Amino acid sequence: xxxxxxxxxxxxxxxxxxxxxxxxxxxxxxxxxxxxxxxxxxxxxxxxxxxxxxxxxxxxxxxxxxxxxxxxxxxxxxxxxxxxxxxxxxxxxxxxxxxxxxxxxxxxxxxxxxxxxxx
Length: 119
What we know:
- By secondary structure, the chain is mainly α.
- It contains six helices and no strands.
- It has one domain (4-118).
């Protein structure tokens, strides 16, 4: 059985196309091996939009890492990355729920204004 640490450190060099898409060496080193593999595949197959979107998401997730794990050259353990990913997912869910509540409140206010105008 392969350890997660070995899998993380097994990432190859970052494909040149990824730099054009917004990835840098620091992000490349900190993301999990599976993300490296996916980005390599996107670069190899020319799936730029998927690559750019994935890089943007990975960069957002990295903002949920603590300061020590965001330092240049830091090795981010898989469990630490996945904890940051869960925090990012919770944040995204909260944003979506807040937007739903805002839209619902706007609709309710418009409906109440329309009913008041009829009276």
